[in-house]
Amino acid sequence: MMNIITRKSSSLASVKAPIRALASVPHIHSLLHFHIHPPISTSASDAVVARNVVTSAALIPPLSGLLGFSGFGVRNFRSQSGPLDFRASVVSRAEYAVADFSDEEKSSKGGDEGLEISKLGIAQEIVSALAKKGITKLFPIQRAVLEPAMQGRDMIGRARTGTGKTLAFGIPIIDKIIQYNAKHGRGRNPLALVLAPTRELARQVEKEFYESAPNLDTLCVYGGTPISRQMNSLDYGVDVVVGTPGRIIDLIKRGALNLSEVRFVVLDEADQMLAVGFEEDVEMILEKLPQNRQSMMFSATMPSWIRKLTQKYLKNPLTIDLVGDSDQKLAEGISLYSIASEMYEKASIVGPLITEHAKGGKCIVFTQTKRDADRLAYAMARNFRCEALHGDISQSQRERTLSGFRDGHFNVLVATDVAARGLDIPNVDLIIHYELPNSSEIFVHRSGRTGRAGKKGTAILIYAEQQARTVRFIERDIGCKFSEVGADLH
After folding, report:
1. What is the pLDDT of residues 411-425, one digit of tens each?
2. CA distances (Å), 423 to each of 134, 336, 485, in order?
3. What is the pLDDT of residues 250-309, one digit of tens each?
4. How many CA atoms does the CB half-sphere of 349 hold within 13 Å?
């Protein structure tokens, strides 16, 4: 049955007949999405936008019995831009570039191990979109999550960073939204909400959603960009909203974001929400969601706040733990080194460490303070192509810095922990902890920028002699041993 979307239309009858006629063309059911665009109206108030022609037979896969949707009648249909081919995501990307290739993609490519995506019974458009990116199989976290997620189970997934979590929750959500839209039509309010601790991770996750299902409307929202653009995108209607908690709260307070129809909520890198001070915002958002929803959390570590959220907001959740208490918390392939150094010597040994272990590749040096990041970057610029990244840098400069680092215009990034999570930067060869992290979780988050998607990497921890006990604690907590670097670097 054709779904026709109108916005303040006074001329619906003029387009109904040809659209219905087209729906009767033989074999039209073989098309997953067939875009019909009427002529552009001379008046915005008369704009009539035809919906995609969809047939439930083509879109509903064998897993249709696992949908679990209920409680919806006629949805608040969205307005779309028709011939202009507007997509909400385009607005969020117009000014700020994102990487062309993410770690999530690469973790699912190639190799003989894994479950064939084409045999999962999910919507063919997802299979085709992933195949175009070279993703044909699911890896451990993805395989373990898919079946219970399709069954509508709440869950908490624990996995090492860089293991491809985005597709783990993305595939089931996308598949269900496609099925739901085929049955009920596409509404203005989002069906899925994904919370991320950083704007970089939010953009990376939204990119994965869009590239896995280009016919869905996705929107990424975060601070530092004009909120009016994001409000306009929400007014057109979206299927999936991905964003940082702070900007989500702002949009809710302005009445631009309506969460009343959200059926899926995901907290990605949930432990880092606590580290960046988003705990109150996260709980405020969760309180505003419908009770009848599926909730999923993914995290590399499980601090007490995560367990509290699980008890309060998840219903009989399934725990999927691919780390375990006795296993190491870092990805395989990361070599760990430590070196003892006095405060006044540290700056002088960073250069030799980069030369020896990065071997001309990309390196991120993590500092505790913005001042140290600026000072170290300035000192190192005499011998290395190097720039600083921290919270006081403007959003536009931040994007230029990240773009330059990705593209190889410089190969050493000196950063505070603002860059420790969610950066979509492939092929980082070396991580240097210029100062001891405040916790083993932060050490894992920082070090997880290298050795991603099965590649090799190195992490080096610089510490003072009086901090040796803390280093041993980190070793025990992450399940790994540091190899001491020789004193010849001093």
Report:
1. 999 998 765 556 667
2. 22, 21, 28
3. 999 999 999 999 999 999 888 888 877 898 999 999 999 999 999 999 887 778 888 899
4. 23
The DSSP line for 56-118 is HHHH--GGGGG----S--S--BPP--GGG---HHHHHHSSS---SS-HHHHTTBSSS-SEEGG
CA distance 175 to 126: 7
DSSP letters, 186-213, are -BSS-SEEEE-SSHHHHHHHHHHHHHH-
pTM of the shown model: 0.61
Residue 260 CA from chain centroid, whole number:
23
The full set of domains in the chain, from first to last, is: 4-59 (no CATH), 83-321 (3.40.50.300), 334-489 (3.40.50.300)
Residues 6+ away with beta carbon under 8 Å from 126: 117, 171, 174, 175, 178, 212, 213
Backbone angles phi, psi at 358, to 5 degrees: -85, -30
CA 287 – CA 281 distance, rounded (Å): 10
Q: Which tokens sit at 374?
A: 């600026």
The residue behind tokens 């003989």 is 112
pLDDT tens track for 410-461? 999 999 876 555 666 778 999 999 988 888 878 888 888 887 766 789 999 9
Cβ-in-10-Å burial (0-12, 13-18, 19+) of 80 comes to buried
Helix (H, G, I), strand (E, B) or coil at 431: strand
Task: Name the residue with tokens 């507007």.
Answer: 86
Q: How many CB atoms lie within 10 A of CB 74?
A: 8
Helix, coil or strand: residue 477: helix
| Beta strand 362-366 pairing with 240-243 | unpaired
Q: What is the pLDDT of residues 319-371, one digit of tens each?
A: 887 666 545 567 677 889 999 998 888 888 999 999 999 888 999 999 988 99
Q: What's the DSSP call for residue 53?
A: B
How many other C-beta atoms can be found within 10 angstroms of the C-beta atom of residue 424? 21
Q: Which helix (H) or strand (E) holds 463?
A: strand 457-463
| Helical pair 279-287 and 304-313, crossing angle rounded to 10 deg | 10
DSSP per residue over 252-309, as a string?
HHTT----TT--EEEEETHHHHHHTT-HHHHHHHHHTS-SS-EEEEEESS--HHHHHH
Q: Give the containing element (helix H, strand E) for 242.
A: strand 240-243
What lies within 8 Å, CB to CB, of 368 at 6+ separation is: 416, 417, 434, 435, 438
Q: At what angle do helices 227-236 and 245-253 cross, to 10 degrees?
A: 70
